[in-house]
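Question (not urgent): is this output format expected?
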Amino acid sequence: MPVTTARRITDFAATVPVRCLSHPVTALLLDIGALYLLYLTPLFQLSFSEPLLHIWLHLHFVLAGYLFSWSIAGPDPAPHRPGMRLRLLVLFAAIAAHAVLGKLMYAFGFPRDAGLELAEIEAAAQLMYYGGDLAELILALVFFAGWYRRRKLSESASEWQTANRRS
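Got this back:
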């Protein structure tokens, strides 16, 4: 990539709107918050009668999920990226929020008035609950692998600096 193009991309990534959008808390609200909005309101049923809304929702969930995953465990450096502890706390909050939504759906039959049998809703809620656990476990493994890699790199860099100071 040409240097000027790379600088433009870097400058764009450092703007306030992009920094706010890529913050883990914002990504959490866009990802998990949208699930609550979809399944606990009439939006789910509306998405079946409005094809553009249906497409937009699918696109939103793919992009929001990618943004959330990147904001938590993305391997590439990001300007102004929050620390590892905050990202880990946001990941734990996402795990809890996702599990609570699955339990709400199972216990109270959400989404209501969707034309679905209760058994179908319960099966979907179980899939959300356990499938979400699997996805979040994978994200946690990637997160901790990155944390471990960064610690090893910083340790080797400090060892190199110490060795060069002696000589």
